[in-house]
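Hello,

Our lab assistant flagged a job as stuck in the queue for most of the afternoon. It eventually completed. Since we weren't sure the result was trustworthy after the delay, we are filing this so someone can double-check. Below is the sequence as submitted and the structure that was eventually returned. Let us know if re-running is recommended.
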Amino acid sequence: MLLAKPWLPDALAQRLPKYRHLWKLPERETRDGIDIFFARYLHIPQYRRPQATVRACCRALWRTLKRHGLTAAFDVIHAQGAWPVGLAAPKLARVLATPFLTTLHIQDDSQLYERPAGRKLYREMLRSTDTMITVGSPMDQFLDELAFTGRRARIPNGIDPRKIQAAIHAAGSAPPPARDWGHVISVSNLWPTKGVACNLLALARLDAAIWQSYTIVGEGPERQSLERLARDLGIAERVVFTGRLSNHEALQHIARADIFALPSWQEAFGVVYLEAMACGKPVIGCRGQGAQDIFDHERQGLLVEPPSAEDKEPLDQEPLDQEPLVASLTDALERLLTDSSAAREMGEAGRERARELTWDTNAERTSALYRQAIERAKPASSPAEAVV
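-- returned structure --
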């Protein structure tokens, strides 16, 4: 497996929280028996000169393949996302004489695909890919907006039931605390579009007697403002910020909670909703987002109204009006907090639904697309030896 990662000097990456995961990144490692090779490329921020970033990514991938003698090791390329690997895939696929597929997990910032240089790269990816794979209906809508008429398939993300059960067991192995119903949790990067601030505003509007705590698992640029908001609302003593946790630790926190609420309004799928459902929790998500593909309103959880805005907002800005979301979210939380029996029924229905969406199912469907793409491809020729 190849992972393309931006290159930064270690000294700089160590000082910048956003890029700390790149500090001392190895050239190669093995996870679950799979060899992973890291291709480091020069990344120009804010989509400036996207051709240069895509070219650097493509060259880094090619050099990594050559260094490890892997240029003839692949029958198909699968790009996970458009920026920048999906946009680099057409050229790499020509060099390796292999077909490629692209999965869209998120919608890129419009700064990329609406500017001439980025639009040209997008068109080449859409024209050349064997199949565009989407994880949910928001990505299907995005392809429609791009006027994509090629081959496409929707393959939802999934969960590993074994990992879920291990986390539930670990959460239950400790003595359960004596507590009442009413513990809410969210797990996400702390960005404005995740709706964590809306959770705080909604809980502050509710009768303090009907909820016990709100646990926020995750880290991000909004953390300080969220902590300040909790203090300003007078609920800080019942709000717990855990910071970033491993998936196993986050799942344990979900297993100990009663309600999962993440009213994110830019969510192509949202595996964490599925994980919460697999833990038997009723879930709250935004209507019209990936959550709507995962669970049915009133059956496994509740869908709330997204913020009202005429235009889509950049990822790092607040929506034009959060009030419709906060009002709808307040009602949803109050309903689940005051009717534990109905909430638990939704949680059990969610557990059943989660069994349908596993990584094994995802892998079977994806493998079928690989075979079809290989059959459609022309006979493989020897990879070009020139530097990309």
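-- support follow-up --
The delay was a queue issue, not a problem with the job. The result is valid. The CA atoms of residues 328 and 377 lie 50 Å apart. Residues 50-67 form the longest helix (18 residues).
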